[in-house]
């Protein structure tokens, strides 16, 4: 249940660490984002840029106060699967994406929900070390 | 005493007084209405919910193994570590933190908690789901935490660790 | 009617003036024609034609509670169990005698405390006296069912959609927050003893009164409610069990009416007529 002002952890190497939701996309005014939903976020906390980072990941790096799109990959609120099981993670997390839905970073560092496999964000699920 | 009206059979005209003696307003006259016999009771008169529950448990748990797992005395307890294997060979391992037992329903489910990459994940698994192949008990602790529902252990020093790593450590301890 | 013998052309040509006898046709000479009586929209026939109805009656049942239902593919749903207990046809109402087509059904056998008047009705039908009687209107005579027939749960097919009507749980006298979902008043900022009340009722001078239908506190629940398009998950006539997906109104043990989904299978006579004629009818979803 990601609303306006919800804080999320970022689990890719785009440089952002904590972001704040400023808009839930493609939902009604009173609705919330679930796993697999796209949101607009503002970067609240970012890793400092160092000289070591080079290549494509350096171009895509985000700074504090940047506004970007993100996909919710974990939620603290339990969600239901068709077989009746409910899943819950200990934090809210997202992965930053561009407007085409491709991830900005090149790596996803932690577990993501299995729902992403069947969505259009399959790439995030393949990048992740584990899906749950 | 009663007869059921069937085509070709004439309904037996009986005095309603026989079954409705407690109604004094009915005058015993030649024109007392016929009361037809009720339809035969279904399910041998058993209540619907009880009948359905017995039928469904037999369907989803023919051996009674799953029901025995959640037995209040001898079954699983919060603190045990189990492994749930599905028909498509995927499996979930975790420590039980709660068992929700439903009455006259196959809605019983088990709440498992685990840590993957230091991140807590929880899954509530319906016990009688036909997709589940097997439920295996991997570890039973010698000493249990108090309370039946272990919601309070979340994010405390009593929280579950990485269950798989814990199990392999336990195994090594036993081997040595 | 009055034709004077003026001839304009002749007047222009010559100043001759001829006068003929004025001709008046008597009213009595006109053969009377009876104007057809206009179609009254408020009549029973017109309303019968307009009404969106089903071809067959539904069933009566008793709500028994909710369960978890697993499909063979492993999907789980919340489902409601409905018992179909001795649901029999008591009477058929026809267009000629009653002005409309309908089937009267009764459910749950009742052997005590029935008035003699009612007893006679059940005797006529050839069924045991019933606890609960209800009527289902149908589109035409083809859907009538012989009196005394028992309708079983397998009357509905698994996978079809049904509408279920029941009486909702009574909530007693409820405030506007519970009854209408109002936001209530603030917790602080000088609000005293009115945290759960509604706010303004309307204008002071204009309209100077509370408009009818204003949402206010009052009795909540205990009213008829229909849920539409619930899928049938299981139907067994011998067991008398009908299971539908989702929830239905009312407490357990309450009587409910079940019918085929009106929005999917219902049609009005007028619509059928239009379709037969090949006329353009706005297709409903």
Automatic annotation (TrEMBL), chain A:
SMART domains: Ribosomal_L14
Pfam families linked: Ribosomal_L14
InterPro entries to which the protein is assigned, alphabetical: Ribosomal_uL14, Ribosomal_uL14_bac-type, Ribosomal_uL14_CS, Ribosomal_uL14_sf
Keyword rRNA-binding carried by entry: no
Entry-linked SUPFAM superfamilies: Ribosomal protein L14
GO molecular function: large ribosomal subunit rRNA binding; structural constituent of ribosome
Protein's UniProt keywords contain Ribosomal protein: yes
GO biological process, one term: translation
Function: Component of the mitochondrial ribosome (mitoribosome), a dedicated translation machinery responsible for the synthesis of mitochondrial genome-encoded proteins, including at least some of the essential transmembrane subunits of the mitochondrial respiratory chain. The mitoribosomes are attached to the mitochondrial inner membrane and translation products are cotranslationally integrated into the membrane.
NCBIfam families according to UniProt: rplN_bact
Membership in a protein family: Belongs to the universal ribosomal protein uL14 family.
Protein name: Large ribosomal subunit protein uL14m
TrEMBL record, chain B:
Keywords: Ribonucleoprotein, Ribosomal protein
Gene3D superfamilies in the record: 2.30.30.790
InterPro entries listed in its UniProt record: Ribosomal_bL19, Ribosomal_bL19_sf, Translation_prot_SH3-like_sf
Biological process (GO), any one: translation
A single GO cellular-component term on record: mitochondrial large ribosomal subunit
Superkingdom classification of source: Eukaryota
One Pfam family per UniProt: Ribosomal_L19
GO function terms (MF aspect): structural constituent of ribosome
SUPFAM superfamilies for this protein: Translation proteins SH3-like domain (SSF50104)
Family listed: Belongs to the bacterial ribosomal protein bL19 family.
Name this protein carries in UniProt: Ribosomal protein L19
Automatic annotation (TrEMBL), chain C:
NCBIfam families registered for this protein in UniProt: L3_bact
Protein name stated in the entry: Large ribosomal subunit protein uL3m
InterPro entries: Ribosomal_uL3, Ribosomal_uL3_bac/org-type, Ribosomal_uL3_CS, Transl_B-barrel_sf
Family: Belongs to the universal ribosomal protein uL3 family.
GO molecular function annotations of the record: structural constituent of ribosome
Lineage per the UniProt record: Eukaryota, Fungi, Dikarya, Ascomycota, Saccharomycotina
Subcellular localization, as worded in the UniProt entry: Mitochondrion
GO cellular component: mitochondrial large ribosomal subunit
GO-annotated biological processes: translation
Stored PANTHER family: 50S RIBOSOMAL PROTEIN L3, LARGE RIBOSOMAL SUBUNIT PROTEIN UL3M
Keywords attached to this entry: Mitochondrion, Ribonucleoprotein, Ribosomal protein, Transit peptide
Domain of life: Eukaryota
UniProt key word Transit peptide: yes
